[in-house]
Amino acid sequence: MDIIKIQYLIIVVILFIIALAIVKSRKKEFKVDSNRLVNYLGGRDNIIECSANKSRFIVTVKDVNKVNKESIQKMGAQGIVEIENQLKIILGEGAHHLKKYIDDLNK
User: Fold this and answer.
1) Residue pLDDT, tens place only, 5-26
2) Dihedral sign, CA of 67, 73, 76, 80?
3) For residues 20-38, average pLDDT
4) The pLDDT of residue 30 is above 60
């Protein structure tokens, strides 16, 4: 009986380690994607202001011509709406994380 409990404990620990590794690897990928997205928005200096509303990432830029909208859509944006120098990008769950990432860059 004790051997079976130990085996179950080992299995649970291994599954926990695998789950932790998956979560950690996704966070790393997101930071890389966030960095690329900032570059596609024309760089940190081109971003005036940003906010997140549910699945939308709303960004005001100095020069909309510096924004690479095609590359942003290739990254997985579900849509981009441009109104003057403001872009509303539908990113899904990553919108709030991207806003936090950009806020951290500007500190």
Assistant:
1) 889 899 999 999 998 887 776 6
2) positive
3) 73
4) no
pLDDT greater than 70 at residue 64? yes
CA dist., res. 38 & res. 19, Å (int): 29
Is residue 3 over pLDDT 60? yes
What is the secondary structure of 6-47 as a DSSP string? HHHHHHHHHHHHHHHHHHHHHHHHHHHHHHHHHHHTT-GGGE
Listed by start position, the domains of the chain span 2-105
pLDDT reported for residue 29: 57
Superfamily of domain 2-105 in CATH is Glucose permease domain IIB (3.30.1360.60)
Residue from 44, 43, 32, 48 nearest 105 by CA: 44
